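Human: I would love a firmer grasp of how sequence relates to backbone shape in proteins. Could you go through the record with me and say what the backbone is doing? Here is the record:
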Amino acid sequence: MASTVILSQTATLSSSSSTTTTAKFSSLTHSPIFHTNALRFKSNKKPLSLSLTRKALRVSASSQSLQALIFDCDGVIIESEHLHRQAYNDAFSHFNVRCDPSSQQSLNWDPEFYDVLQNQIGGGKPKMRWYFKEHGWPSSTIFDNPPVTDDDQAKLIDLIQDWKTERYQQIIKSGTVEPRPGVLRLMDEAKAAGKKVAVCSAATKSSVILCLENLIGMERFEGLDCFLAGDDVKQKKPDPSIYVTAAKRLGISEKDCLVVEDSVIGLQAATRAGMACVITYTSSTAEQDFKDAITIYPDLSNVRLKDLELLLQNVVAAS
């Protein structure tokens, strides 16, 4: 039987690969923006099927045609989880952030922990706020003593996030980061066919802009029909606001949009907005339960626009 990792209350994630990680994060399950399906990860999972799932998103039976292709950024255009983790840890070290007053080491999110955290909570500030609430607000070079007031806690998070964003931008500008396979070709195919192309990311706008300018190029970036970041909506994914807003700005019905995501959080946001969604998973999301995706790909290298058009046309029949 496949084992599951369920996030519930207190705890720590061991960096040892020999033990099954159990993260105890119950406060997540009480948050209105989290869906219980997102809290299960199956290990020893069978290879992910590339065929249409029989549990696909149920949409209106009226005629459908692919009119807009909407991409997430982190995990879809760029495999960035390890880059964000590096930037967070560099920020924690820079400000000597310590949740444990007896520790001489600054906070460090190891890969195993961050894989779970980033797949549960969208956006950097919500990640830190949740972590500090669970593990205690830290001391730092910003505040000698852990902040107590809401204003001081917000200031701490804002300063760490700003520094982290600048560090992440330095990494992106280094020229060592490449877009994921097939993404640029698929964008070009869609534009050439007269489809609208959009990017909707939960990340900070400045970070997303930098990624897009450096990874897809200025011409493609300026040619996007819609671009939304976490700053543009009140609620982050898995709330559907960002995709609902995109459909309105594009002037296209949700049922004629197809979203490309890499995680359960993004999948939930898309389906709650009434959009069909395909998954192109990463190493950190491959074990998630993508039952509501209309199909699943390891990457987009062999995916053509005509494949996606056929998927959207057949989604009702497949369900």
